[in-house]
Amino acid sequence: MAKKIIAIGGEPATGKTTLMREIIKDLMPLNTFKYRLVRGLYDRKKNLYVIGIYDESLFSGTDKLSMAVQPQFLQLVKEVQNGTFIFEGDRLFNASLFYEINCEKIVLTADEHIKAQRHINRKDSQTESFKKSKDTKINNIINKFDVTLFDHNTENHTKIVKDYVLKLIEK
Question: Within 13 Å, how many C-alpha atoms sit on residue 46's CB side?
Fold first, then answer.
């Protein structure tokens, strides 16, 4: 079984993917890996797995993985002895996963006006009903599980959260 799993979630436009891209920069060099439907980056020396596909597209990370990835992710974390896993995004950040495994859950938040501007800046087409459903999902997780909350409103906040996550990885 994995020794540590770090899950990063939040409503759309709270900075999850931006944060993960910054974390990945500090973890380089990393190699790609594939385990069935699970894709990501890997550091053999640290036995560290970053789950998701990170490229230049607007939606990266676990958003690029199959909707059917969760059971195979669970199998992977059960098979890898003493590994550390980190992921962000909606595909895996859900209550059904958290009932199955113990992990550090980090939720990013941002002010409404900042999220609205980020949606405009990235020119996404997420509907209000989609955004509301993700808001409800995240609030349900916050109410059901022990989570660490971070306001993620500025670039300075990215550094604060990144430093926190990097310390978790090194523990």
Answer: 20
Closest CA to 153 of 14, 7, 10: 14
Provide the domain limits for residue 89.
Answer: 4-170
Beta carbons of 147 and 141 less than 8 angstroms apart: yes
Label the pairing between strands 48-51 and 38-43.
antiparallel
Q: What is the CATH number of the domain that holds 124?
A: 3.40.50.300
- E strand or H helix that includes residue 120: helix 112-122
Nearest-angstrom CA–CA distance, 125 and 16: 18
Statement: residue 154 has pLDDT above 80: no
Q: Is the pTM of this model over 0.90?
A: yes
Contacts of 161 (CB under 8 A, 6+ apart): 19, 106, 108, 150, 152
Could you give the number of structural domains in the chain?
1
pLDDT in tens, 59-111: 788 989 999 999 999 999 999 999 999 999 889 999 999 999 999 999 999 88
